[in-house]
User: Fold these one by one.
Assistant:
Number 1:
Amino acid sequence: MEHILPQTPTKAYWKNQFRQFTAEEIKTLSATLGNMLPLSQSINSRLQNDSFEEKKNRGYYNGSHSEIEVSKESDWDANKIYERGIKLLHFMEERWNFKFASQEQMEELLHISFVNDGRDIPPELIEEESSAEEIVVPSDISDDDLKLQFWTKALPVIVDAFGGNSTYSNVSPSTRSTLDGFVGIGGINLYCTMRLRKHTLSANIWIDVKNREKNKKIFDVMFARKDNIEKIVPYAIGWNRGVKRSSTVNVEIENVDFNDTGRWPELIDFLATTCVALKSELITACADELHAVIDGD
């Protein structure tokens, strides 16, 4: 589900289109029915804070009937959100054969009656888009929204670090604490973890081929390359040879304040470079040995 007007708009386009509204009103506009758009393609979930024209060109034009209808608009402002919300409520009336009590009731359901209060519109803002767009996170953001925003910023960088191959190219941002990659060997997993409560960020390999002894052998194959990986990764590497079942390799940094968005580029670079190193040195470089262990008796 896409918020056409982003939940936390930062680009100049959105700031200008909604410049007469307060931050709280913009938050309400973003969440109202007329601004919500179901997407037909998962790649569209990455549109996020792009301008309306960029969103149309990258996804809406070739999407569902609803997306195509929205793509016909020349721009997106509060009046368009209001009009689409009313239109969708009328659609509900026809679809389920009922009637709202009044126009006032419909407006109450949308929660955006302030759109039509006749307020003055300030002069258009003059703002140059920064090549390195500022990351803005509201102080009252929920944990889920914070994780979604962080992964949304991190994922394209991680995909690029892998050269656009399938390791992370088919992954979408989510509200989970982990971001899982694909390495092509069953039972061996590469993933990133952000733990808000523990203030840690890590790149990890998890080994579990449903066989305790094989798990240990796979770990030993990777551990044999310990010197190689430690020359590449400038952080402490945790090696955990599980006794009961799974084994892990972890590279973790501590004391991370995820609300300090000024550090996000540094944190994202850490994940990207470390994940590439872990896969290259501990999975790809010894793939034949790993397959031999997994396929052996």
Number 2:
Amino acid sequence: ACGPVAEPEADAAWQIAVAATAHSEVWVITRPRFRDAIRAELAARPDVAARLHVHYLDLAAPIVRLKRRGWDLYWYYALWQRALRRRARGLHAEHRFDIAHHVTFANDWLPCGLAGLDDVAFVWGPVGGASPVPLRHLHRWLGLRGT
């Protein structure tokens, strides 16, 4: 999610994208959920609009309808990430990105389409995890001083 809205995750992504425009041109690929809010914000901020390029991506309508029925959304996420990889590769071929940053809905166990870009530094996170931490292995991973 990404957009200038009162939803913490979407707004955090939006703030990161806007901040990055101070140093670079920025391309954002997001679902069209906040399209109207994004358009209004860019119209009000031409300085940001000149450097922030938003591309909207969603899956086919029948797939989106299945997602809206309340089914587990992780299957949808994986399909969306595949579509993201295709879109990002096309944009990268045209604009030659230096960095790809996956900002929201990043989990330590889910795929990320941006990781499939060649010759691009990849930043993943902030990353959350719904995975249990195997405490019995922490001493091996962190050493005695880390546990």
Number 3:
Amino acid sequence: MAIVKAMASLKIDYSSPGRLDDAQQLFALSAAAEEQGVFPDDLSKVTKRLWADSGIQSCFVRSREYQLNDSAAYYLNDLARIAKADYIPSQQDVLRTRVKTTGIVETHFTFKELHFKMFDVGGQRSERKKWIHCFEGVTAIIFCVALSAYDLVLAEDEEMVRENPPSSDLCVFICMNCITLRAP
């Protein structure tokens, strides 16, 4: 649905006039499917027709200009399998899922007798103020960014690219907070 919504803002037309009706039907069928918890055949057909449209494909190529899941093409290209009534997610399907992180998720694990705490923190600016307590007693920070997101726009500010090399503002924020915590 993100691609369909972006068509208007990016001023991209569908290659077939019938796809405009499909786009409207997509929203109606999606709402009903979400309520019922099923993936109806009509929704699958509409989605397949839209995904095959060259206008949609042009919009997909410009996905760095709007918010789109990295795995959208994977799922859309495999829609026939995913839309089956007896669908069981593969390991790849599960690995490619994404849930927006809000707040802080703490995971404990041990590797070669070393105990680690990993914090997955919400990446949005509004979430950053919640991170400060994660730095207490820290001896190392591994700062991870998605390589696939280097040229994508921020969800909260579509004028700004997410990963300014090397996410300079965020890196400085983290380092300065660590220095502040260690100050006498």
Number 4:
Amino acid sequence: MKTEVGKFPKLVVVLVGDRRDSHRFIDIKLEACEKVGIETLVSELPENCTEKELLDVVSSFNDDKDVHGIVVQLPLPQHISEESIMNVVNPEKDVDGFHPLNIGNLAIRGRKPFFIPGASKACIELLLNHGVEIKGKRVAIIGRSKIVGLPTSLLLQRHHATVSLLHAYTKSPEQITSQADIVITDVGIANIVRGNWIKKGAVVIDMGYNEIKINF
């Protein structure tokens, strides 16, 4: 990486609390960074830290010229506003792509965000690398989280897909999914999509985090 850009980029991951799933996701990030030569630092705060303490930590990394990327690991404890924290991350260091400026630019045709949410970009790459045509296709996304569902819908529209975003108040979701060429789930609930919801030849991608008990 230093050979290509003249320096070692540095990513800081800010973790609040001790969630097992958060540690797992961070380990994946650190492993990926190590493979491509990106320096990393994990800044850990206790779960009972105040919102101001977290804001101060993020702001300090915004001002640090040796830090090129910042990830605030989600979810945060309930007493901390995720929106307030995401808003304070420098958009040029917001490698998750969750800052309103980055999401807004993703939504507006002709504009380019500094970063695109990684899960959404991975979904598109998965489709393209397997030769799945996106342009002109109907896509049903189940779930509208700001981490996956919403940015994925925006990115698919950039690829000229017709997107339906389904949520808890959507009536007859099976009627929508049964007409979709591509179905993407983002709800973290195993078996939420039934076989009779999917038309023959449709592509299904589960982007949720599910645990399934298997009896041997």
